[in-house]
């Protein structure tokens, strides 16, 4: 029983990070119908920003988080402006390949500058408590709570503000939205900023939990988060959150009962099974062909 | 003019150029045998040429699914892995040592068939999903193959598999390159190939015009993965060591780059893309790590300014069968309405 | 007259909206019939149901003795039903010739292996496909454009190519979805003659959807009128012209007489 509770907590932690990154994917997909395959690498950049901020600037947690989020958001906006915007009318494949290229570029650029993994110096005190036989770490709680807070803020943004309404309008009808006065390019840039910013935050939180970082850390995590977004129904914000926690739970359960080398394997098989039987994900809507 | 007379007329106009091709290829094959036997070329150059050949097979096989059929398969390295491991396992663990060289072509073919079997599995989700979703499915397959190998001890797991003899030679690579190009070209310029193209253009309309899209997809995926498997077998017996990391998303991305660089929907494009990419990577080797920073940047620029690749959708005339080339000369101003 | 197509109590729902309700149709061999009605009445849906794009929620469709509901579109096409589309759906990047050749898919005799290795009857079959395609193009006066890319054709010729492509499947039943869309009166007149010629030349049964009344009244032997998914009238063009309900649907309330 305590073992299960323990794993439940672990799942929450892992799931929170996946959910944050998944939100970035889903926001961009919802508004541009494009999968930003470079997103996982932006998460990695977030972790490296955290490293630079702590190791070289000596900043405490909150400024580090804000700085990293802003840094990644800025990078995201630049990528959208120069690599994706010109391809908005081009076939989808071009955009996807470009995204893959951008991702590769980020990975190898970081690798060139940092050939060895880096270690983020400790940023927050980690206190351990035991409650009902389950050991809790303050860091774990912190990550979970902060993630939920950010998700809550995003939900508010999308559902309660004009900007959020603009985002939703564009996602429903890209042609008509500008005719109704919605500044499409600005909203898209903002969406990218928010989505990638969340990914950057995830990078910081990940760095708190697992301080050793390397340029390729975003690849696998990125794909897992992407799976989460698809599982929940890509384009659907609530779906991305649910998907993240589901994947976290699946992973932790798999590692708990099987050799750890099966972890990724099971995640991908789950994805495949889902896509075969319910391609639209949990909260997604099936696509109808019009003839 | 009657149809047959027209035909003769156009033949004399120089369409027969493509008849030179088989002769040329036979000549090149003999040259490759000579180079191999008498060490006429620097071994390093031979190695690069063989890598180019293997990459051509990978590129043209992926082009069939991504370029001609307009699908989005991102896990091509997975099929390569299946072929590599199958062929290697056969020559190292199954066949007696002294027979390995004789059975090499069979081992490679076995690798291809194994990869094709997996390809059939991937074809099934493609019936209902396209685009981004199919990308994930194919990627998942690639990852699953990689994960599966990591968990199988007999294949060396994460540590890798070695012991292969260097059975891949210039003549063998040449043969397989020509064979793969020939078979895929035959597919494209046939009923099924037209089906492939129609799926890319408009899948729903295609089905309504009697195209059995399931059959076509299965065929395309099977042929595509078969040749990826062949390339894998050749690769394994050139490098003499393989491990799961060799066939990861980076490798799949490399192949994608070669396809889109050279030109989708064009065999000549695939040859160009594979050659240019392999050569540039070699030439840039002194740059070290910065080489892999430069390459993706190049790719992005390519996508921004020339998304259809170097050749666009155009094909090298000698690759097109006579019948289809003849059809290409049939437009006449007189036959048109005012 | 031999019946060739029969729809019995066909109903189709989308997410709670009923697109077609209890639609019945009996089409005889070699008939030339039309379906008319306001936009959104469900006419194209009927075509989609017949050709297998949608699977009818309820009811049955039989064609030459075979049940169509539940069959895949390519099977239905192979059985002998071909169609054109409201918005032209040609294979844009392919040549005119290839657009027509593709439609021979189900008729071709060789198997994949023979294609891959150029064995057996491959070459003979390909010649036959090429011959038939060129003949068809010549009949429809498109042969001068054989090597032209489909998207480069002028609008009227694109529509003709769509019909050529449909005819290449050697259908018994041809469904034309708004063939006169976007045409001026002269073009409509030519289309009218063309349809009548095609009907005889290829021994077809034709069912068409159209808004242009001139075409419909002069080509169709029988008309069905759909409104909100229901058939509200059926009869000869003359009868339909005088039908009160039809007039109401098209023109609003009939004036008090």
Total DSSP E strands of chain A? 4
Strand content of chain C: 15-25%
List low-pLDDT spans of chain C: none
The Rg value of chain C, from CA coordinates, equals 19 Å
Rough shape of chain A?
A: globular
Residue-averaged pLDDT of chain A, rounded? 86
Largest sheet of chain C: 6 strands, mixed
Would you report the number of β strands of chain C? 10
Q: Helicity of chain A, in percent?
A: over 70%
* CATH level-1 class of the largest domain in chain C: Alpha Beta
In terms of quaternary structure, the protein is: heterotrimer
The H-and-E topology of chain C, N to C, reads as EEEHEEHEHHHHEHEHEEHH
Helix and strand run of chain A: HHHHEEEHHHHEHHH
Overall mean pLDDT of chain C: 91
Please provide a written account of the structure.
The complex is a heterotrimer of chains A (291), B (338) and C (257). Chain A has 291 residues and is mainly alpha-helical. Chain A has helices at residues 2-32, 39-55, 61-84, 92-113, 138-160, 162-172, 176-179, 184-209, 217-232, 237-257, 263-277, and strands at 118-119, 128-131, 134-137, 212-213. Chain A has a single domain (2-277), classed as ABC transporter involved in vitamin B12 uptake, BtuC (Orthogonal Bundle), CATH 1.10.3470. Helix content of chain A is 72%, strand content 4%. In chain A, helix 2 (39-55) runs parallel beside helix 4 and helix 9 (217-232) packs across helix 10. Helices cover 70% and strands 1% of the residues of chain B. Chain B has a domain at 20-248. In chain B, strands 1-2 form a two-stranded antiparallel sheet. Chain B starts with a helix and ends in an 11-residue tail after the last helix. Chain C has two domains: 1-80 and 171-257, P-loop containing nucleotide triphosphate hydrolases (Rossmann fold, 3-Layer(aba) Sandwich), CATH 3.40.50.300; 90-165, no CATH class. Chain C contains ten helices and ten strands. In chain C, a hairpin with a 2-residue loop joins strand 4 and strand 5 (66-67). The longest helix of chain C is centred in the middle third of the chain and has 18 residues, at 122-139. Chains B and C meet through helix 7, helix 8 and helix 9 of B and helix 2, helix 3, helix 4, helix 5 and helix 6 of C.
């Amino acid at each position: 029983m305590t073992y299960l509770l323990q794993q439940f907590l672990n799942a929450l932690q892992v799931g929170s990070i996946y959910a944050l990154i998944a939100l970035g994917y889903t926001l961009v997909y919802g508004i541009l119908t494009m999968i930003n395959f470079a997103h996982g690498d932006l998460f990695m950049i977030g972790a490296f920003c955290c490293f630079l901020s702590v190791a070289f600037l000596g900043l405490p947690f909150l400024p580090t988080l804000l700085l990293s989020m802003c840094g990644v958001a800025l990078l995201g906006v630049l990528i959208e402006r120069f690599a994706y915007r010109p391809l908005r009318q081009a076939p989808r494949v071009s955009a996807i390949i470009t995204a893959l290229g951008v991702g590769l570029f980020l990975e190898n650029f970081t690798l060139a500058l940092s050939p060895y993994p880096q270690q983020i110096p400790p940023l927050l005190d980690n206190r351990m408590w035991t409650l009902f036989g389950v050991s809790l770490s303050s860091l774990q709680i912190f990550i979970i709570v902060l993630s939920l807070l950010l998700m809550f803020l995003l939900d508010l943004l999308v559902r309660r503000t004009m900007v959020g309404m603009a985002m939703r309008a564009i996602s429903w009808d890209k042609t008509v939205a500008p005719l109704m006065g919605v500044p499409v390019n600005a909203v898209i840039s903002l969406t990218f900023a928010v989505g990638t910013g969340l990914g950057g935050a995830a990078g910081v939180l990940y760095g708190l939990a697992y301080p050793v970082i390397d340029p390729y850390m975003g690849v696998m995590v990125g794909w897992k988060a992407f799976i989460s977004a698809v599982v929940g129904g890509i384009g659907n914000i609530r779906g991305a959150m649910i998907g993240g926690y589901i994947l976290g739970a699946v992973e932790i359960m798999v590692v708990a009962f099987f050799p750890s080398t099966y972890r990724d394997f099971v995640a991908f098989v789950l994805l495949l099974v889902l896509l075969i039987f319910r391609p639209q994900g949990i909260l997604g809507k099936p696509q109808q062909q019009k003839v | 003019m009657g149809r047959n007379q027209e035909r003769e007329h156009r033949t004399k106009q120089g369409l027969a150029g493509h008849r030179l091709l088989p002769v040329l290829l036979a000549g090149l094959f003999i040259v490759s045998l000579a180079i191999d036997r008498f060490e006429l070329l620097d071994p390093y150059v031979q190695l690069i040429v063989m890598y180019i050949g293997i990459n051509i097979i990978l590129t043209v096989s992926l082009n069939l699914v991504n370029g001609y059929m307009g699908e989005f398969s991102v896990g091509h390295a997975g099929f390569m892995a299946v072929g590599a491991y199958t062929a290697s396992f056969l020559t190292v663990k199954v066949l007696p040592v002294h027979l390995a060289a004789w059975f090499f072509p069979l081992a490679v073919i076995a690798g291809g068939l194994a990869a094709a079997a997996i390809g059939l599995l991937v074809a099934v989700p493609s019936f209902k999903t396209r685009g981004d979703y199919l990308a994930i499915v194919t990627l998942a397959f690639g990852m699953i193959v990689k994960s599966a190998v990591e968990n199988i001890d007999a294949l060396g797991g994460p540590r890798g598999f070695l012991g292969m003899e260097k059975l891949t030679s210039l003549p063998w690579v040449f043969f397989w390159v020509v064979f793969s190009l020939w078979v895929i070209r035959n597919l494209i310029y046939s009923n099924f190939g037209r089906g492939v193209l129609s799926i890319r253009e408009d899948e729903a309309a295609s089905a309504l015009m009697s195209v059995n899209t399931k059959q076509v997809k299965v065929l395309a995926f099977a042929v595509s993965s078969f040749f990826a498997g062949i390339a894998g077998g050749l690769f394994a017996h050139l490098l003499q060591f393989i491990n799961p990391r060799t066939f990861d998303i980076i490798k799949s991305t490399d192949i994608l780059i070669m396809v889109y660089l050279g030109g989708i929907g064009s065999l000549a494009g695939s040859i160009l893309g594979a050659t240019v990419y392999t050569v540039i990577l070699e030439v840039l080797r002194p740059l070290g790590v910065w080489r892999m920073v430069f390459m993706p940047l190049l790719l992005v620029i390519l996508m921004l300014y020339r998304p259809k690749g170097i050749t666009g959708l155009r094909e090298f005339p000698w690759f097109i069968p006579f019948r289809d080339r003849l059809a290409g000369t049939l437009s006449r101003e007189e036959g048109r309405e005012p | 007259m031999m019946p060739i197509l029969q729809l019995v109590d066909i109903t189709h729902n989308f997410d709670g909206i009923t697109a077609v309700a209890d639609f019945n149709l009996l089409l005889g061999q070699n008939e030339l019939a039309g379906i008319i009605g306001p936009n959104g009445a469900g006419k194209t849906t009927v075509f989609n149901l017949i050709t297998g794009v949608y699977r009818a929620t309820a009811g049955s469709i039989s064609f030459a003795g075979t049940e169509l509901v539940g069959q895949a579109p390519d099977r239905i096409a192979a059985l002998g039903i071909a169609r054109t589309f409201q918005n032209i759906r040609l294979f844009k990047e392919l040549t005119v010739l290839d657009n027509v050749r593709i439609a021979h898919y189900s008729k071709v005799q060789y198997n994949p292996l023979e294609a891959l290795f150029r064995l057996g009857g491959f070459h003979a079959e390909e010649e036959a496909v090429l011959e038939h395609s060129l003949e068809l193009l010549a009949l429809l006066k498109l042969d001068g454009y054989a090597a032209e890319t489909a998207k480069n054709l002028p609008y009227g010729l694109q529509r003709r190519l769509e019909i050529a492509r449909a005819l290449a499947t050697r259908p018994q039943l041809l469904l034309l979805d708004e063939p006169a869309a976007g045409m001026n009166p002269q073009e409509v007149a030519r289309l009218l003659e063309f349809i009548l010629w095609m009907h005889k030349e290829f021994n077809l049964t034709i069912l068409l959807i159209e808004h242009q009344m001139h075409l419909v009244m002069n080509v169709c032997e029988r008309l069905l009128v759909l409104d909100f998914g229901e058939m509200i009238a059926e009869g000869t063009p003359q009868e339909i012209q005088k039908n009160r309900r039809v007039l109401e649907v098209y023109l609003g309330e009939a004036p008090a007489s």
